[in-house]
Amino acid sequence: MDYLIGKKVGMTRIFDDLGGDYPVSIIEAGPCEVVQVKSVENDGYAAVQLGFGDKSDKHVSKPEKGHFAKAKVSPRKYLKEFPVESVKEVSIGETVESSILEIGDLVTVSGVSKGKGFAGHMKRHGFSGGRKSHGKNSVMRKAGAVGAGSDPSRIWPGTRMAGRMGNDTTSVKNLEVVRVDKEKNLVFVKGAVPGSANSVLYIAKQ
Fold this sequence. Notes:
By secondary structure, the protein is mostly beta strands. The chain contains three helices and twelve strands; from the N terminus they run βββαβαββββαββββ.
C-alpha cells in the first residue's frame, strides 16, 4: 500500500546535524483499515477503500453499518478510495500504518486549504492595483476594466475578480519525509501541507 489517511497536527522546525533548521509539518498518519477492495473483474477497475478515525455508533446509518460489518471493521469517520495497480496482495480488514513510509520518501499530500472568506482581487490574485501618481484618483485598489467592449459585450468566464478565497481541494507534491515516529504514527514532512490543524489529509507515496 502506498496510501494513507491522516490528520494535520501542526508545524514545527527540525535541526539537522550541521545546526541548520527547516520547517516541517506533523501528520498523524493512520492507522487505517482496508474497508473495501474493488477489482477489475467485479468493478471494472482496481481500487482500495481505506477508513480512518473512529465514529460513534449513534452517527452511523444502517447502510454504513452493513458496509462496515461486511468488512468486519469498526465504523470509521473518514473513507477514501485510492486507485491501485493490483489488489492481489490486499485483504479486507488489513491495517495500514505510518510504517509504510521511510525517511527520504517523497509524498503527495492532498487536503482542503484554509478558507479566507470573501477577498478582493488584489489579495486573491496578486494584482498590483492602479498607479498612485500623475492625477490618478481612487484607482489604487481597483481591478480595472473587465469587459471587452461591444464585442462580445460580456465578461469572459474565468476572469480574475473578487470572490471566495481558499477552501479548495489542493495537493502539494514532492514533500520529503524527514522523520517517522512509528509508535505514535506521526510523519514529519519538509514544508507546508494544506489545511489547518486537525484537518484531514490524504497521503500518496510517489
